[in-house]
């Protein structure tokens, strides 16, 4: 049984300062890294002889508009079936420079998940074989999941946030 | 016979003939084709009957659930999850409730957990029954489909008894179930446990060892273990390739550890194996349903979490606190704690994950659905490359891609 402690120590030993922000929300090992190190980190986890974190469960984006310089976060969930061990890796990006290397070389499943993340947030995955919109129409000229696009029509007056607790 | 004078006829010599050009046919399979069982488009390049390459277009029923969820109180998001995998909505509903309960730290009583398991396994049966019988239809056996559809109807009647709805169930609540199992529901479930095995056995008799069915499905659309893992396969499709990953066993939720069941696996990852794995899973699900109904614990069917679970209606009329809680919950004025949760359940098609980030407000800050169909459907061109069009149809229907889940 692989423990969070063991993996965290192993990663710190290998990557030093490049992995940081260790947390364990609800028992799931969460850490951050930089976009230069995300591919080596995932490759290390995947090729590790005993850990064998070979499965990319999920890849998505989150936006924190108030976090200046780190407005966007790409979140990877990886899973090792052998040890039943999950790990969450985050990479923060600034809005001015939304580039991150693609994980399609490591996991074929990253292809559409990265396209979806691009479609929703406009994060550019460098080296992706086919970085086009996937769920929305191609003519769309904005990224709908960003927080600056509110769900409801701002001109409506019958839905007052103060009254509806929003 | 009169002489017929033939007109002089110039036969062109070989060199004068226009040169034959080989070209590929482009075939639009979909978006609305009856054989695709949903709205997907595949632009196939065909060399005669063989598929050379395919390009998929998805998103025809994209409804931006993740965006909508950012404006909704937690309990209103259940209705969005219904519409993802609409063949097994209760699993989606329960998965969502459990995610929120994990965030809030609510411990659900055993009885509610068992009722949930019961409903989820019934949902799995309806999900697989559709997939397998449709596969029969696509190979030319229509009878089985109509026959087992009657059984799905019976499960829908059970849903109706438990939550009042049939297809988009919106079943259960954060903190438990919205009502206890009624005596009618228990009777109907017991009847179903009795009447379903002969029907499933008959479907097996129709297909499992049927020469035509086997010839049509064995070695059709196979995928190796390595590719399946790389493509993020989960659920029956991954198990058909020979990897025994099942969320119910690996990360038991809702008391799955109390139940005795097996995880069937296949070998070749082809259409026949996918069919067989689903077939066996229905037997296992039935086994779980039987155990759940026989060992149903006594006790409350909802957790003691008045801030999140609606109080009984009679209380609301008499009790001041109940009225306040009722109002606050309905108006969505209950704030959830800040936190970050990933919770996965074994959906009809595989690992259905909910990645929820709460910033301490009434609605999720960000909610991401890990939809199994969306992730594994991208392997489809690779799986049907080099096969004939009719085999590609079978591959798609055996993958059980559900449009609602694909596009969310």
Quick recap:
The complex is a heterodimer of chains A (about 170) and B (about 400). Chain A is α/β, with parallel strands linked by helices and about 170 residues long.
Task: Explain how this protein is built.
- The complex is a heterodimer of chains A (166) and B (408).
- By secondary structure, chain A is α/β, with parallel strands linked by helices.
- In chain A, 23% of the residues lie in helices and 26% in strands.
- Chain A has helices spanning 4-15, 38-47, 110-121, 161-164; strands at 19-23, 29-33, 55-63, 72-80, 85-93, 99-101, 124-126.
- A five-stranded mixed sheet of chain A has the order 1-2-5-4-3.
- Chain A is globular.
- Chain B has a single domain, classed as Orthogonal Bundle (Cytochrome-c3 Hydrogenase, chain B), CATH 1.10.645.
- Chain B has helices at 65-69, 78-82, 89-104, 110-139, 142-163, 183-207, 211-217, 225-230, 235-240, 247-250, 271-294, 313-318, 320-330, 372-376, 380-384, 389-399, 403-407, and strands at 25-29, 41-47, 50-57, 339-346, 351-358, 366-370.
- In chain B, the strands form two sheets. Chain B has a three-stranded antiparallel sheet. A three-stranded antiparallel sheet of chain B has the order 4-5-6.
- Chain B starts with 24 loop residues before the first strand and ends with a helix.
- The interface between A and B is large, with 38 and 46 residues.
């Amino acid at each position: 049984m692989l423990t969070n402690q063991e993996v965290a120590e192993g990663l710190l030993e290998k990557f030093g300062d490049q992995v940081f922000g260790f947390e364990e929300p609800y028992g799931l090992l969460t850490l951050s890294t930089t976009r230069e190190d995300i591919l080596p980190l995932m490759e290390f986890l995947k090729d590790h002889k005993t850990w064998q974190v070979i499965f990319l469960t999920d890849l998505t984006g989150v936006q924190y508009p108030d976090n200046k310089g780190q407005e966007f976060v790409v979140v990877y969930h990886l899973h090792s079936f052998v040890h039943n061990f999950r790990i969450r890796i985050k990479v923060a990006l600034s809005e001015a420079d939304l580039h991150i290397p693609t994980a399609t070389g490591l996991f074929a499943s990253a292809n559409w998940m990265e396209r979806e993340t691009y479609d929703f947030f406009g994060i550019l995955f460098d080296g992706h074989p086919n970085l086009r919109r996937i769920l929305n129409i191609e003519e769309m000229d904005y990224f709908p999941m960003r927080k600056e696009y509110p769900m409801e029509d701002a001109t409506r007056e019958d839905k007052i946030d103060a009254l509806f607790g929003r | 016979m009169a002489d017929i004078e033939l007109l002089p006829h110039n036969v062109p010599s070989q060199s004068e003939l226009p040169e034959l050009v080989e070209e590929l046919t482009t075939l639009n399979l979909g978006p609305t084709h009856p054989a695709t069982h949903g709205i997907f488009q595949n632009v196939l390049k065909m060399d005669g009957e063989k598929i050379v390459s395919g390009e998929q277009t998805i998103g025809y029923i994209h409804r931006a659930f993740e965006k909508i969820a950012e404006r909704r109180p937690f309990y209103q998001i259940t209705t969005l999850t219904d519409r993802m995998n609409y063949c097994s909505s209760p699993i989606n509903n329960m998965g969502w409730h459990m995610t929120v309960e994990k965030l809030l730290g609510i411990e659900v009583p055993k009885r509610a957990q068992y009722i949930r398991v019961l409903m989820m396994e019934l949902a799995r049966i309806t999900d697989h029954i559709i997939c397998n019988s449709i596969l029969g239809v696509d190979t030319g056996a229509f009878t089985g489909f109509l026959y087992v559809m009657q059984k799905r109807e019976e499960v829908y009647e059970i849903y109706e008894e438990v939550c009042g709805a049939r297809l988009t169930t919106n079943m259960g609540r954060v903190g438990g179930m919205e009502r206890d199992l009624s005596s009618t529901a228990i009777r109907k479930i017991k009847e179903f446990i009795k009447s379903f095995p002969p029907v499933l056995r008959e479907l097996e008799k129709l297909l499992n060892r049927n020469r035509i069915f086997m010839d049509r499905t064995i070695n059709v659309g196979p995928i190796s273990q390595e590719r399946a893992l790389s493509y993020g396969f989960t659920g029956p499709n991954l198990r058909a390739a020979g990897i025994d990953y099942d969320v119910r066993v690996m990360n038991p939720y809702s008391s799955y550890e109390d139940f005795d069941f097996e995880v069937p696996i296949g070998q070749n990852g082809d259409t026949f194996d996918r069919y067989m794995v689903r077939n066996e899973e229905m037997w296992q699900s039935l086994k779980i349903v039987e155990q759940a109904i026989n060992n149903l614990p006594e006790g409350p069917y909802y957790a003691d979490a008045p801030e999140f679970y609606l109080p009984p209606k009679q209380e609301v009329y008499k009790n001041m606190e109940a009225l306040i809680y009722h109002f606050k919950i309905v108006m969505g004025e209950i704030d959830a704690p800040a936190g970050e949760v990933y919770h996965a359940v074994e959906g009809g098609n595989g690992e259905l994950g909910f990645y929820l980030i709460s910033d301490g407000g009434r609605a999720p800050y960000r909610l991401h659905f890990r939809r199994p169909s969306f992730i594994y459907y991208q392997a489809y061109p690779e799986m049907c490359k080099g096969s004939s069009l009719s085999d590609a149809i079978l591959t798609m229907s055996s993958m059980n891609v559900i449009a609602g889940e694909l596009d969310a």
